[in-house]
């Protein structure tokens, strides 16, 4: 069955760029038209959708983060990625990648990665 | 942006009791609303999609209802493993948004 796994640095310095990758296993990222998503959760707080990207590179971003977010897909590696620039302490969170239950539209998200904690600190 | 408001923030109940959680949208989301359960240290788990459809493997004690702006998640009889935080989420419009969550705690 399909599985997702986030990877990337656990510590990022303020003003630098946070870079994360989600590896998809058990299926091909390019065999379907899902909008693969990134979602984050600051410690002790709720969930925030960051954005979604299709295998063709079409994107939707949260307006509150849009100026700092870039998402892309690498079909050769069966991965999609997140870059968040100019990070501050407010970007400290657990970052999840997730798959929506339907193609061509945004989630409900039926498959999630386990999450990766990213701390922004000097 | 569609704002989702969940209430109550905390629900204190005993095992075996019925739990009723609410989610209200700032504008109509039709039936494009999902519910998730999250336990400490775990990723959220999809319970209900499109207002009333249980996700794969979800027990029948979980049910969802509503349309438009007002939605309800009902747990008919709480099991010990159901004490957790529950979130609603809309997929009607971009940007996708989540509610602030309801914590179901043991009374």
Q: Calculate Rg of chain B over CA atoms.
A: 13 Å
* Secondary structure tally, helices of chain B: 0
Would you report the number of β strands of chain A? 11
The percent range for helix content of chain B is under 10%
Terminal residue distance of chain B: 35 Å
Distance separating the two termini of chain A:
39 Å
Derived from helix and strand composition plus strand pairing, the structural class of chain B reads: mainly beta
Shape of chain A: globular
Beta-strand percent range of chain B: over 45%
Quaternary state reads: heterodimer
Element-by-element helix/strand order of chain A: EEEEEEEEEEE
What is the tally of helical segments of chain A?
0
Task: Report on the biggest sheet of chain B.
Answer: 7 strands, mixed
In the predicted model, the low-confidence regions of chain A spanning at least 5 consecutive residues are none
What is the 3D form of chain B? globular
Note down, in words, how this protein is organized.
The complex is a heterodimer of chains A (122) and B (107). Chain A is mostly beta strands. Helices cover 0% and strands 50% of the residues of chain A. Chain A contains no helices and eleven strands. Chain A has strands at residues 3-7, 11-12, 18-25, 35-41, 48-54, 59-61, 69-74, 79-84, 93-100, 109-112, 116-120. The mean pLDDT of chain A is 95. By secondary structure, chain B is an all-beta fold. Chain B has no helices and eleven strands. In chain B, strands 2, 4, 5, 6, 9, 10 and 11 form a seven-stranded mixed beta sheet that branches. Chain B is globular and about 35 Å long. The mean pLDDT of chain B is 97. The chains are: A mainly beta (122), B mainly beta (107). At the A-B interface, strand 5 and strand 10 of A face strand 5 and strand 10 of B.
């Amino acid at each position: 069955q399909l599985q997702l796994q986030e990877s990337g640095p656990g510590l990022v310095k303020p003003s630098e760029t946070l870079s994360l990758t989600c590896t998809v296993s058990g299926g091909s990222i390019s065999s379907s038209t899902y909008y693969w998503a990134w979602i984050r959760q600051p410690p002790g707080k709720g969930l925030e959708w960051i954005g979604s990207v299709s295998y063709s590179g079409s994107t939707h971003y949260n307006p509150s983060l849009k100026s700092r977010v870039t998402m892309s897909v690498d079909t050769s590696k069966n991965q999609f990625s997140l870059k968040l620039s100019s990070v501050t302490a407010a970007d400290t969170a657990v970052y999840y990648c997730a798959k929506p239950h339907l193609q061509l539209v945004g989630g409900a998200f039926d498959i999630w990665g386990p999450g990766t904690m990213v701390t922004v600190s000097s | 942006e569609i704002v989702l408001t969940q209430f109550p923030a905390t629900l204190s109940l005993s095992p075996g009791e019925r739990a009723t959680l609410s989610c209200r949208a700032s504008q109509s989301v039709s039936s494009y609303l999902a519910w998730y359960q999250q336990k400490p240290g775990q990723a959220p788990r999809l319970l209900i999609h499109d207002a009333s459809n249980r996700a794969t493997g979800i027990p029948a004690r979980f049910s969802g209802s509503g349309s438009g702006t007002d939605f309800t998640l009902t747990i008919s009889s709480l099991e010990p493993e159901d004490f957790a935080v529950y979130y609603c989420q809309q997929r009607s419009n971009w940007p996708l948004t989540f509610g602030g969550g309801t914590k179901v705690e043991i009374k």
